Amino acid sequence: MHAYHELVGADQVHGSLYGDPGVFAEEMRQIFTRGWVFVGHESEVAEPGQWVTRRIGREPMILVRDRSEALNVLANRCSHRGTALCWEHRGRDSSFQCTYHAWNFGLDGALRAVPYPAGFEKDHAELGLDRAGQVESYRGFVFANLDGSAGPLSGHLGVGGTDMIDRLCDLSPSDSITLGPNWLGHAVGSNWKMWPESDNDGYHLNWVHASMVSSAPDTYYQETVLGGETGNQSLAVDWGEGHVELDFRPSYRRELAWLGASRDKVPGYCAALEQARGVEAAGRLLWDGPPHGLIFPNLFLGELNIAIIEPVAPDRMVQWHTAVQLEGVDESFNRRLLRQSEAAMGPGAFIVPDDAVTAERMQLAMSGLGVHDAGVRRGWVDMSRGLGREERRADGRRAALISDETTNRGFWRQYRTVMAR
Amino acid sequence: MSGGPTQQVGEAERREIEAFVFHEARLADTSQYGEWEALVTEDMHYWVPAGPALGDPAAGLSYINDNRARLATRIRQLQTGKRHSQTPASPMCRAVTNVEARRAGDGSGGDGGDGGDGGGDEYVVTATQVVYELAVQSTARLQLWPGRVTYRLRRVDGMLRMAAKTVELVTASEPQPNLTFLL
Ligand code: FES
Ligand SMILES: [Fe+2]
Fold this sequence. Notes:
The structure holds two protein chains of two kinds. By secondary structure, chain A is an alpha+beta fold. Chain A contains twelve helices and 22 strands. In chain A, α8 crosses α9 (279-288). Chain A has helices spanning 4-7, 21-33, 153-169, 194-199, 205-208, 210-215, 221-224, 267-277, 279-288, 331-344, 352-366, 406-419, and strands spanning 12-14, 36-41, 50-56, 59-65, 71-75, 90-92, 96-97, 104-105, 111-113, 134-138, 141-145, 177-179, 184-188, 235-240, 243-247, 292-295, 299-302, 305-313, 316-326, 380-382, 391-392, 398-401. Chain B is an alpha+beta fold. Chain B has a single domain, classed as Nuclear Transport Factor 2, Chain: A (Roll), CATH 3.10.450. Helices cover 20% and strands 34% of the residues of chain B. Chain B has a six-stranded mixed β-sheet. The A-B interface holds A 89, 180-189, 208, 210-212, 214-216, 318, 320, 322-323, 335, 338-339, 341-343, 346-348, 350, 353-354, 356-358, 360-361, 363-364 and B 48, 50-51, 58-65, 70, 73-74, 76-85, 135, 137-139, 141, 173-180.
């Protein structure tokens, strides 16, 4: 194990952490195997037999609902000789049948049948699929902890994780969201940690996204993040546990700014929300909108997008995303969310590709660094902006100006804690 | 694809259509954004789906799903000179082959976007395209973009114009690197 407390400081991080293969391997264990990670949404596997493939760290997994409606997070790896059971992104089956020697597994991962059984002395019960040690949902968001040692999900989500998920789901008149019809993957030649950073960096927007701002001037970024260092009230927030947020609420100057709309554009939605929550609460929700933040380590709630940060290699990652869809609203409203998602997220959009190229440039610049450089003062990156003006708020949040690096420090503080444990 | 007798195109039309497609390819390869945009109609739909180009593009999430206004934004953004993911523009060359053309008007055009019956003035053209792109902005990797292209071309004031371009990438189901050049 590397000496992570020496590689991550309160206001700086060593560049080798973005590219060293040994660090990457230790992250897969310390963060993705020992901790809670987001795996999917219940609506993706609404019916028994529906499954989706995911990775936990680098381990291929299947999220599947079984006949008793329970959610299982199973290794996508036959327990006989290790063949993948699913090779598409999603599907629906009554069981999993291996294509090599035709072992058959139930949707709960139990071994049900093998051909020519007389040659086996082991009990079938010993030969079920490997599975995540813990699986828990919160308001439809499914999380798993591979080694089962991470304690209850509520401890991981803490105040910040539950608050952000609540604020998103509360926007749905039915109390829960569903996901868009498909996920899109954005392949980036960077370390995965550039994404928790850049997705929640309030300092870069005027520069990385200058081309978007000047060519699509009606975006709500105008009021939330532009206007100079102190020109708006948005906050960079560290909730603890590695959960961080760019809190745009204080900057919105009108209802539904986050939707680029007004009540008369989406009357059906507003009526449904008032019906569900009452006029006053609905009014507040329409002002506040959805959160923009990270649930450590791999779930990005990007307003009305959901993204999964998937590490691939020290210098490769995929950001998967889909749009949030609300239940109990008319189709045109959800279509609006799809179009908004296409504009913002993914390889062809107006915003995120410029974050991607920036992350790749960081990777390029830090690729030559090793952990041994830390001691000779080479290759440190600074993350000190606004450290001296962070405030601890009554609700426990650490907050500073939107352009301060409070969010990035919050991610790295948790990183150091879990990597050094 | 060759269609019934009423949908066949003559030799001269065919040459004209191919010349248009190759011209469009050259402008895209060389990132001549304004010249490329001059080729499109006011109802242009530029579509790169995340799978086969089936069904209504509005019902899914696509890599690119630009109506005319959004395409104008895309071009404007590229023309700012600050679109980092295309600064500098990727060196590219594309091979466009297997070009087949027929007259539209049977209601089964390659792209549902315009909904019009083009009659004698509209063509549905399919081609195979492979773009070789060097990501000089960052990784310097050579990226290959093989796919099937469907154009809807329309004659406007005597000139062919592009009313739809759909690119079904062979790799559509898998994660894509930055795709901010003109595919
Ligand atoms: S490897 Fe799966 S049945 Fe043999
Ligand atoms: Fe960004």
